Amino acid sequence: MTAVLTEKNGAARPSVHPGGPQPPSRRRTGRERAYDDVPRWQIYLPLGLYLLFTLIPFYWMLLFALRPAGSTALVPWPMTGEHFSKVWNERSFAVFFQNSMIVGVATLIATTLVALAGGYALARFDFKIKGAFMLALLCSQFIPGALMLVPLFEIFRNLQMINSLWSVVIAETVFQLPLSIILISGFIKNVPVSLEEAAWVDGCSRFTAFRAVVLPLLRPGLIAVGSFAFVHSWNHFLFALMFLSEQDKQTIPVGLNTLIGADSVDLGALAAGGVIAAVPVVIVFAFIQKWLVTGFSAGAVKG
Amino acid sequence: MAQPAAVATPPPKAPRRRTATPRRLPYLLIAPAGLLMLGFIAYPVISVFYYSLQNYNVTKPWRNGFAGLDNFRRIFTGDDQFWSTLGFSAQWVFTQVSLQLVLGLALALIVNQTFLGRGISRAMVFSPWAVSGVLTSTIWILLYNSSTGFSRYLADAGIGEYGTSVLSDTGTVFWAATVTELWRGVPFFAILILADLQSVSKELYEAASVDGAGRLRQFFHITLPHLRDAIILATLLRGVWEFNNVDLLYTLTGGGPAGETTTLPLYVANTGIEGHDFGYASALTTVAFVILLFCSIVYLRLSKFGGDHK
To answer: Would you say residue B134 lies in a domain?
Structure first.
């Protein structure tokens, strides 16, 4: 499966690495420089400055999380785990973490499956309400989730789902769907329909053909969409804040907000909570970031 | 006897429609998405429109009932907070989108070059994209904290004064919040623009540089026109997103100090959730929605999105 991926990535952007090391014989007289022959300092200087802007805040959080309370050292040494054990045990971040995980994974699965079906319909069929459906997807982008809180709350109260994690899963999935469907239908359009037809001729059903031929080629796109859904629901705050009032049902962002709003803010505990909140998304991000750009260039922009 | 052979030879008829219900299949496929969106997006939207014409306040049930356009009249004639939060929203969206675009474009152009350490640099500069609004607030609260934050160390070095909290000073809070939001917003633009940069053909640049066009001219005559649609789409999506999103400001400043950083959606949320005045909040939502839709259409028209300019 890695082979497919690499192949696809390679095919998607042949222009990035123009065939490995450049032949040194390229003429570069005066203004006839190739576009990417930029002086090195013009790359490294702004990049370095931007990296400082990006990384110092992360470092700052780690520093507060790891150094003992009351210390003002700029290096987290001596290192302590006191803030982590406090947040994890006393401030119930262990429970929040588990809840956030359930919400994140359930949203990922639900969004990917539903969007795959919808995206396939949009990419491969012409049907009467297709235009209306597309319009609805686009319009829904303009609807502020924050302003839907009260009506959604009433719906979930009528469904008796307040304080159930599923209310948050449903809300996250619904607001994640439109973009996911648009992205996935873009990816599916990029898979030539003739590949599928060849499989039908070989006697595959539409579903088998899809699973065997189209699905493997969609992998980078699905990784992008699925990780979007996970990261989004892991991070999202308002739905969980509104729909889950019992403490043992709350999620990590709500727990963090409680720490921020505490009467006397315990900065060490806050930083440790932040690190716990960051770890899963950083892992997901490190895993997907290479495909993120490819995924977007295949689907979103040209979708 | 030649006939059966002739019948056997033609290639097996392509089984065009293998599924039993080809006509219903697309509807079945969009049904889950469609039903979810009807139930949890369309229905709430309609109920907001409906309640915008009602007096609906759980703390004052005796006044509940049809209100006609009273809520809207109150918005446009008697509500200073509406205008001030709308003004702040406009300022916030404009500042964020323009700065994020410029910085994100620059960043994308830089990490699109070939250089040593490109992969790891990309991963690092894009990483705040994955960080939530609440976590961003958490991190920057640690940085802005007056006693142990970054400003203390700056003050140690002789820059600024001790004990300044940029988040509680009306003069600095806007830029403090802006920098915070830029920190996690720029990577989104950079990722989108970088994705589109992948599809610029290298030959164009080579041809241009053979013709003696410098890097600046190549940027304005090749790169920028190519990125046009991606930029229009990204700025629009981001503008809408920055308008609607409340979790960063809610947790970072709480809309304060003195309502200085309250956006329209934050005001709506306060009215509806804390003030329990759901009828009026619904009317505000309706107005916000119409403004957003109107601005988006005007923006797409003015920018001639999707026109044949390439």
So the answer is: yes
Q: What is the CATH number of the domain that holds B232?
A: 1.10.3720.10
**Residue B37 to residue A234, Cβ atoms within 8 A:** no
**End-to-end CA distance of chain A, in Å?**
25
Write the DSSP assignment of B113-150 as a string of letters: S--TTHHHHHHHHHGGGGS-HHHHHHHHHHHH-TTTSH
Pick the CATH number of A81-298 from 3.40.250.10, 1.10.3720.10, 3.40.47.10, 3.40.50.720: 1.10.3720.10
Q: How many CB atoms lie within 10 A of CB A154?
A: 15
Examine residue B5 and state whether it is found in any structural domain, yes or no: no
Q: B55 by DSSP, 3-state: which?
A: strand
The verdict on B195 touching A (C-beta cutoff 8 Å) is yes
What is the pLDDT averaged over residues A214-226? 86
Q: What is the pLDDT of residues A129-187, one digit of tens each?
A: 888 888 888 888 777 766 788 788 888 989 998 899 999 999 999 988 998 998 888 88
Chain B residues with beta carbon closer than 8 angstroms to that of A284 = 130
Domain span at B96 = 83-303
Distance of residue B80 Cα from the nearest chain A Cα, in angstroms: 20
Residues of chain A contacting B49 with CB distance shorter than 8 Å: none
d(CA B310, CA B295): 25
Contacts of A145 (CB under 8 A, 6+ apart): A171, A175, A238, A239, B244
CA dist., res. B256 & res. A21, Å (int) = 55
Gap between the Cα atoms of A116 and A113, Å rounded: 5
B128 has pLDDT over 50: yes
Q: Is the interface score ipTM higher than 0.95?
A: no
Cα angle vertex B63, ends B62, B64, to 5°?
95
Q: pLDDT tens digits, residue range B162-210?
A: 766 778 788 788 998 999 999 999 998 898 888 888 877 788 888 888 8
Could you give the CA distance from residue B298 to residue B17 in angstroms, rounded to a whole number? 44
Q: How far apart are CA A59 and CA A74, in angstroms?
A: 10
Give the pLDDT band (50/70/90) at residue B306: low
- Per the domain annotation, does B235 fall within a domain? yes
Q: Nearest Cβ partner of A260 from B30, B131, B137?
A: B137
**DSSP string over A103-127:** HHHHHHHHHHHHHHHHHHHHHH---
Q: How many domains does chain B have?
A: 1
